[in-house]
């Protein structure tokens, strides 16, 4: 592999990396996809794979660095989509320009593109992989074509939540899911048997990183996937072009190098920023793309939490249940003048992995989440200490902005009121530990029109490097208030199309 030359080297095989690699390869360009992880076993769960994933350093309340950070969603072939809940919201119009709702010390949250530009890519991906949803019921949904799949029915618990929301004057609606509600494109409908979120889908009803490409025929030899291959450094051919990617076999610890006409970073917001920082060299002494010191800055995780509580039911109706993690959502508080800064967030059903109920009671559980402020000092950094592969450890330097803490409290109260209306007598709060990273990773390679305040342009191209792109959540200058996976995919498809035009 040392002497290999490819058209495009893609780093990471998750939501963005798979999208970019397949889109480019089907046009006859030779693509090498580097993936640090390996294929997950059939019985994999998030709990089982997290033990083997590297951690990052985060600051404790006392200010010392501790190894509790989570710089991955899932380090495996297919990335976080292997174990995600399938929640497939589109970003709302406000998510692309939230300047009226952030604090004065925040970075500019404005995206260099808008929803209208991204909409065709949402539509195409929705057709490819199937999204089950109901149009016209979400008060803040952006314009879209008619759904390709009908929505999933509310679960028994989802129905109780929806009914309570209705009594409070809210407008509950089915959570949009990249999970087949009916058979679609060769994949079965969900049979609601067993756990969903944080587990592999046993039937293929839930879309994963491969689902949009099951019927894509690639030219022979167009795509090579190298598992257990960690990209450790990018070397420049000259001051404005990436020349090669050095990668490490995680088992043998041997290093190799591939030369590429174009390099695309899709490892996730944390890993892509860290790779650019590790690539310091004479022409880029502070890391590639970091002339303005912005690489790693503006990292965000979404503020979030859970509330839950039990209610009594007929013991005869208490039974094990499986199926989607979430079937009902409420966006009434997304924009709300009562919320601090006027911008709230999303609330939706969040079923526990263990669905069995006991003693004539069931547990209702809600997840509430919102975008956090993009702050310059919330950043990915490199430590002087080394990890198991001999690379600098990653530091996730993150503090929640006071405004975001107030917004989180506002959403927690709204979610608690909803449970109380559903009949819960004692509402319990559960911290999501969002401040340590993991599930929703955004920023770090911010997109923007001003090179002094961003890392990449509107196409994901690093400002001062002609052939180096970032296609993952690191692109996001503002994290948006809903789950990001579908938007990451849509934006990656947009970027991939641009790369094809540049190379062919």
Structural notes for this entry:
It comes from Bradyrhizobium ivorense. It is an enzyme of class 1 (oxidoreductase). Keywords: FAD, Flavoprotein, Oxidoreductase. This protein has 504 residues and is α/β, with parallel strands linked by helices. The protein is 18% helix and 21% strand. It has helices spanning 15-25, 46-50, 115-129, 156-167, 269-278, 402-421, 485-503; strands at residues 5-11, 31-35, 56-59, 65-69, 173-174, 223-227, 229-238, 241-249, 255-265, 303-312, 328-330, 346-349, 361-370, 379-386, 392-397, 428-431, 468-470. The strands form three sheets. Strands 1, 2, 6, 7, 8, 9 and 17 form a seven-stranded mixed sheet that branches. A six-stranded antiparallel sheet has the order 5-11-12-13-10-16. Strands 4-3-15-14 form a four-stranded mixed sheet, with helices on one face. Helix 1 packs parallel to helix 7 (485-503) and helix 3 crosses helix 7. The radius of gyration is 22 Å and the shape is globular.
């Amino acid at each position: 592999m040392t002497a290999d030359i490819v058209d495009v080297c893609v780093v990471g095989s998750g939501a963005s990396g798979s999208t970019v690699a397949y889109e480019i390869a089907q046009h006859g360009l030779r693509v090498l996809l580097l993936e640090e992880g390996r294929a997950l076993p059939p019985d994999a769960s998030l709990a089982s794979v997290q033990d083997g994933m590297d951690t990052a350093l985060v600051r404790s309340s006392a200010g010392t660095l501790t190894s509790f950070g989570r710089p991955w969603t899932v380090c495996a072939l297919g990335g976080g989509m292997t174990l995600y809940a399938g929640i497939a919201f589109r970003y709302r119009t406000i998510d692309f320009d939230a300047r009226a709702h952030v604090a004065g010390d925040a970075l500019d949250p404005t995206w260099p593109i808008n929803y209208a530009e991204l909409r065709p890519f949402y539509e195409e991906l929705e057709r490819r992989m199937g999204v089950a949803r109901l149009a016209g019921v979400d008060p803040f949904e952006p314009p879209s074509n008619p759904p390709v799949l009908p929505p999933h029915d509310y679960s028994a618990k989802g129905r109780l939540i929806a009914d309570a929301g209705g009594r409070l004057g809210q407008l509950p609606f089915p959570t949009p899911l990249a999970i087949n509600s009916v058979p679609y494109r060769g994949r079965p409908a969900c049979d609601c048997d067993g756990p969903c979120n944080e587990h592999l889908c046993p039937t293929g009803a839930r879309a994963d990183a491969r689902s949009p490409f099951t019927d894509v025929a690639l030219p022979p030899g167009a795509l090579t996937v190298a598992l257990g291959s960690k990209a450790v450094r990018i070397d420049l051919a000259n001051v404005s072009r990436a020349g090669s990617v050095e990668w490490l076999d995680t088992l043998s610890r041997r290093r190799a190098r591939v030369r590429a006409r174009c390099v695309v970073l899709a490892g996730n917001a944390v890993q892509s920023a860290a790779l650019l920082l590790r690539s310091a060299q004479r022409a880029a002494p502070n890391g590639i793309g970091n002339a303005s010191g912005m690489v790693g800055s503006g990292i965000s995780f979404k503020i979030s939490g859970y509330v839950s509580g039990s209610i009594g039911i007929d013991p005869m109706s208490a039974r094990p249940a499986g199926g989607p993690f979430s079937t009902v959502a409420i966006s009434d508080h997304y924009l709300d003048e009562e919320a601090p800064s006027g911008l709230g967030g999303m609330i939706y059903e969040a079923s526990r992995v263990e669905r069995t109920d006991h003693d004539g009671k069931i547990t209702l559980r809600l997840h509430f989440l919102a975008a956090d402020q993009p702050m310059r000092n919330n950043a990915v950094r490199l430590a002087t200490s080394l990890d198991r592969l001999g690379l600098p450890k990653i530091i996730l330097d993150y503090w929640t902005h006071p405004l975001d803490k107030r917004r989180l409290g506002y959403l927690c109260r709204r979610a608690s009121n909803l449970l109380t209306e559903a009949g819960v007598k004692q509402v319990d709060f559960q911290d999501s530990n969002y401040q340590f990273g993991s599930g929703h990773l955004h920023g770090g390679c911010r997109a923007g029109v001003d090179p002094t305040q961003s890392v990449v342009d509107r196409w994901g191209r690093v400002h001062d490097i002609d052939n180096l792109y970032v296609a993952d959540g690191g692109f996001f200058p503002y994290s948006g208030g809903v789950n990001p996976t579908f938007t990451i995919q849509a934006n990656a498809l947009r970027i991939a199309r641009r790369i094809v035009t540049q190379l062919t």
